[in-house]
């Protein structure tokens, strides 16, 4: 693995070809990929979902955003090929993400958090207001949001279903069970195979369990004080999210002081931004550049 200790230049324009690099964070190597526009613009840091590694981001979303932005995806502590042990609280994950961002030398960033990554993004935005300029939250909810504490049971149930049916659990967890939803699920899973070289390691069972514990703790916390998040925030989701019920999306948009809601994507679930990748990328870039 190519592993310099600083932010690389130049960056490729496609996540299929972006080299996997690493940076030392207090003696632990965090792996990441950088692509897209170079220069002094504010980079966009992506925070991914439960059990995800670098290869689980939809290439259409990454490449679409990277057409006009510098985009950085990374594996947080203990995830994929990153070293260390995965913490079992969202707050600790947020601290590690901040350390990673600062290790790359950035003084200000934008954040895109999906699902669990959206939990992490909320903590970073609230605790590091000078570091974060704008935030995009997708398929996520606030601490104590309805249904979030049930993600563990649902995930394990559909993981077993996937094993018994020889299908990827994301086909059930991320997409609706309609004909249209399942067609979109299959297309998404095919896109995830486009990168064939230098693929990331799968998440370990130990890290997966730590993430599940962190998510359950997030769901059982008292309702969050979202007034602490003063940055502009774009909120998106499908209308039928089974993992983080879509009412959480409406709740975020209403309670965030500068929240902006993308109309919920029809016949879409937790992976709504992947299913509607063209529309999402257009809206996200417009928000980031406004």
TrEMBL record:
Q: Which domain of life is it from?
A: Bacteria
Q: Which InterPro entries match?
A: AB_hydrolase, AB_hydrolase_1, AB_hydrolase_fold
Sequence ranges assigned to domain AB hydrolase-1 in this UniProt record: 43-274
- Locate the region Disordered: 1-20
Extract the Pfam families matched here: Abhydrolase_1 (PF00561)
Listed GO MF terms: catalytic activity
Coiled-coil regions in this chain?
none
> What's the protein name?
Pimeloyl-ACP methyl ester carboxylesterase
> What is the organism field in this record?
Streptosporangium canum
Source taxonomy lineage?
Bacteria, Bacillati, Actinomycetota, Actinomycetes, Streptosporangiales
